[in-house]
Amino acid sequence: MFDALSDRLEGILGRLRSRGRLSDADVDEALREIRTALLEADVDVGVARSLVDGIRARVVGEDLSKSLSPGQQVVKAVHDQLVEVLGGETLRLSYASAPPTVVLLAGLQGSGKTTTSAKLARWFRQQGRNPLLVGADLQRPAAVEQLRILGEQAGVPVFSEPTDPVAVAAGGLREAQRLGRDVLIVDTAGRLAIDEALMDEVRRVSSAVSPHYTFLVIDAMTGQDAVATARAFHDALALDGVILTKLDGDARGGAALSVKEVVGRPIAFASTGERLADFDLFHPDRMASRILGMGDVLTLIEQAEREFDHDVAAEGATRLLEGRFTLEDFLSQLQQVKKLGSLGGLLALMPGVPKEVKQNANIDDGQVAQVEAIIRSMTRRERAEPGAIDGSRRSRIARGSGTTSQDVNQLLRQFKEAQQLMRSPGMLGGMMGGGAKGKLAQALAERMGDGSDPGVPGLDSLSTGAWGSERAVPGLGSGAGGAKGRPGSKKKKGGRVTPKGGGR
Amino acid sequence: MLALWIVLAVVLVTLVVGLVVAVPRRRRGRLGRGEVPSAAVAPVTAPAPAAVPAPPTPEPLEAESPDAGPETDVGAAPELRERMGKTRGLFSGYVRSLRSRSSVDDQAWDDLEEALLRADVGVATTTALLEDLRARVRDGELRGAEAVVAALREDLRRSLDTTDGNGLAFDTEGPCVWLFVGVNGVGKTTTIGKVARREKAAGRSVLLAAGDTFRAAAAEQLEHWAQRTGVEIVRGAEGGDPSAVVFDAVQRAQARGNDLVLADTAGRLHTKVNLVEELKKIRRVADRPPGHVTEVLLVLDATTGQNGLTQARQFLDAVGVTGVVLTKLDGSAKGGIVIAIQRELGLPVKLVGLGEGPDDLVPFDADEFVAALFD
Predict the structure, then answer these.
(1) Which residues in chain B have Cβ-Cβ distances shorter than 8 Å to A42?
(2) Tens digits of per-residue pLDDT, B333-375?
(3) What is the ipTM score, two decimals?
(4) In Å, how far are A112, B271, B275 from A339, measured between CA atoms?
(5) Largest distance between two CA atoms of chain B
(6) Which of A216, A245, A476, B244 could form a disulfide with A271 if both were Cys (CB 3.0 to 4.6 A apart)?
(7) Residues near B78 by Cβ (< 8 Å), separated by ≥ 6?
(8) Which of chain B's residues have a Cβ under 8 Å away from the Cβ of A316?
(9) Which residue of chain B is at minimal alpha-carbon distance from A485?
(10) Which of these CATH numbers, 3.40.50.970, 3.30.450.40, 3.40.50.2000, 1.10.260.30, describes A307-436?
(11) B151 pLDDT band (50/70/90 cuts)?
(12) Confidence tier at B83 by pLDDT (50, 70, 90)
């Protein structure tokens, strides 16, 4: 994880501060650590090697920064190198002068092509287009059926017929022209890159429709095989871009780097969940952070934004800043945070969390449940005034939650400590401060833009360092920030009805 | 101490998210309706498909023609090695060149390392294996490249051996349930079809449970396999409770005298707490008398990298996985992550999937797997 890598690098490079410059020898060991980190992230062996060479060039001879430690500086160089590789030329979609614009999806079995087709269709619709989906996967049982259902959800018609993939594709194109649809999205069957016959088939499908864009759909958890697959599909189809799927998992996603480096085509889209809405343009710097195990704060925030009730979230932050944050508030925020998934996983995504915690934190979600149970066993008044909890109340709470008085005591103490910690210099400053930890500040800055509306009370004090941070948070002028939650801000999850007893 | 961090984490996330959602997003950077991102020149006319050089060796897979009725003959199960052998390539290349050397120099170790890494064996396992070999070379126990390669092969084979063997647990004390779990897209449903074929041929009475009630047309997909293999299937309402489907299937199995219930579940990422809870419930329900769960099979895609180990760990913790089915091994991926899974978690690979047809399933054989790596 980021802190682990940074700390490891710190251990190697920490003594260098006095030296002023990073030499070859200094950097060698550090680069070995970086190579390991990249390999653990599933980056192709060869690509990792060339990346490390690139980083060496970036770093050797550099002056040691004043504000970053040598370890942080090297990590920053790595991060920047990855962003460069992953980014570069963004794929800019432009539409054919003679419609429809044809998009072809190809890839291995199970990579997510069918779901992605529907997501793309929805995306195009959002762009104001009228897409048509073509179900040319006649191999997988019920694949066309699946696409029809998804198409309905996306509000996009689906064309298919039980002939053969090439005929279906050609038929789809004619149908699009007939109906005046301006985008055609062709879903194909998953196929092994080494299967000559099937690769030939997809070439013929491509010939039949002359796609303007051909995308390789690849699973973010793919390992070393990514390169061979990408190369083969690229050789066969001349890819225009790549779509990375299942980014809502915790795979580091090094395959993205490998594919980009080897195929040289942009990663156009990122798919981040099973709902049709979980689809967006690809962000190179978020991916770079993720590959390095640095935690993807921006995605975390976006996810939270989708899942959280905005009013509750804004209220919580306000009360926190005003020092009015109670156990009651904590409980309601805990409910929100649980929606994001495992708390242990969450901690891993957050910068600024000390390494001891991350290392020990396969935080048992049972412990979280315990914390919750304790608070639920309190009365409203106890939650508002935990100071009033005496021995007998403690026992009662302990009994009610299936814990011990010591557990209850511990929670109360730690809650108090946490509140104090939040106020202490360095804590928030550390999170908001410079270097790689400035991700948070960056994220906030990005969101707040030039900062217009009168702010969440207390934001002013944040920016002027009343919380003890040395620097003003970039992007927060006085009066920055939005006032309330969004209008009608009770957010419901879109997508499917959740079944009883479970939920997506 | 940990509780403190739970508290802090919640508090921090509250603060951050609260601040962020309270602030309206800048419009720039988000595509408004009808906006197209400003253009770099993108191809508008279709590029001619690139000329393709003849690809090396592999024999094409026979196309499976979708059949209307159940097939009763079990086709010849493909030999693991034969099918894996399609992609000789790098690993064997390294090894061959290594063997030709008399001594094991730095370059040789690097090559071995690269070969293992490219097979998705992973940094930690690779390092452990090679360090052990290096020590044995230093001690004089292993002399020369041949010996090192042979020793590595043996180490790998031993890593994958299990004392319990790779059989699938079955008994006749009421309906056995084999639960199939895993992340999205790995091949659970197809695997169930293959297992149904196999078990029926072995004389067992099989019932399928369409426990994926989430994915569009998932039950239809499994229904296809039921028809194809001539076994019954229990379905529920789409969007309904998967536990209910499994419960119904077990009841029916008991009533009709089926020996074995093969329960499909929806693909789910191990990082999703709600979904993991749902899976736990499915297992609990499946385990209620008269049913009993005798296998929880984690279906794992051979193309998966290091995340495979995380998946295995999480699913093991959640629902007590008893074995792994490694799918898509007929592709170019080597599936080396299973070595770490066995070494670190004690989870054996029981079955290997080698294609999309109903017969493309073989029992896992450590010898064959390792030999295929080295051939």
Answers:
(1) 305-307
(2) 999 999 999 999 999 999 999 999 999 999 999 988 998 776 6
(3) 0.78
(4) 24, 11, 11
(5) 72
(6) A245
(7) B354, B355, B359, B360, B362
(8) 14-15, 18
(9) B22
(10) 1.10.260.30
(11) very high
(12) low
Nearest Cβ partner of A222 from B2, B184, B303? B303
Asked if B5's CB is within 8 angstroms of A371's CB, the reply is no
Where are the domains positioned within chain A?
Answer: 2-86, 101-294, 307-436
Size of the A and B interface in Cβ pairs below 8 Å: 392
Residue B142 belongs to a domain with what CATH number? 1.20.120.140
Please list every residue in chain B whose beta carbon sits closer than 8 Å to the beta carbon of residue A440: 16
- Write down the architecture of domain A101-294 according to CATH: 3-Layer(aba) Sandwich (3.40)
pLDDT in tens, A221-279: 999 999 999 999 999 999 999 999 999 888 889 999 999 988 999 999 999 888 999 99
Residue of A nearest to B119 (CA): A224
B202 and B109 together in one domain: no
Helix (H, G, I), strand (E, B) or coil at B296: strand
Which chain A residues are closer than 8 Å to B38 by Cβ? 92
CB atoms within 10 A of CB A3: 23
Same structural domain for residues B117 and B237?
Answer: no
Q: Which domain holds residue B122?
A: 80-160
Q: Please give the single-letter amino acid code of residue A233.
A: F
**Quick one: A2-86 is in which CATH superfamily?**
SRP54, nucleotide-binding domain (1.20.120.140)
**Among A221, A248, A275, A333, the residue to mutate for chain B (most B Cβ within 10 A):** A221
Q: What is the pTM of this model?
A: 0.73
Single residue among B129, B160, B191 that ends a domain in this structure: B160
- DSSP assignment, residue B86? T
Residue B247 placed within a domain = yes
CB contact under 8 A, A235 and B52: yes
- Residues B125, B182: one domain? no
Instruction: Identify the CA nearest to A132 among candidates A118, A149, A146.
Output: A118
Would you say B210 and B223 are in contact if contact means Cβ atoms under 8 Å apart? yes
For B115, the closest chain A residue by CA position comes to A45
In this model, does residue B233 exceed pLDDT 90?
Answer: yes
Mean residue pLDDT across chain A: 78
Walk across the sheet containing A183-188 and list its strands: A158-159, A131-136, A183-188, A101-106, A213-219, A241-245, A267-271, A279-281
Choose from A119, A129, A225, A269 for mutation: most chain B CBs within 10 A.
Answer: A225
pLDDT in tens, B6-16: 666 676 666 66
Residues of chain A in contact with residue B221, where contact means CB-CB under 8 angstroms, are 140-143, 146
Count of C-beta atoms within a 10 Å radius of residue B76:
7
Quote the crossing angle between the two packed helices A365-376 and A391-401, to the nearest 10°.
130
A478 pLDDT more than 80: no
- Cα separation of the two ends of chain A: 27
Using CB atoms, pick whichever of B19, B224, B333 lies closest to residue A317: B19
Q: What angle do CA A175, A178, A181 make, to 5 degrees?
A: 80
Interval A111-148: pLDDT, tens: 999 999 999 999 999 999 999 999 999 999 999 999 99
- Which of A219, A245, A282, A324 should one mutate to test binding to chain B, selecting the residue with the greatest count of B CBs within 10 A? A219
Query: Which residue in the set A236, A334, A448 is minimally distant from B23, CB to CB?
Result: A448
Rounded CA separation B233/B227 (Å)? 9
Tens of pLDDT along B32-59? 333 333 333 333 333 333 333 333 333 3
Q: Determine the residue type at B261.
A: V
- Answer whether B331 sits within 8 Å of A225, measured CB to CB: yes
User: How many domains does the structure of chain B reveal?
Assistant: 2
Nearest CA of chain B to the CA of A404: how many Å?
Answer: 14
Min distance B284 CA to chain A CA atoms (Å): 13
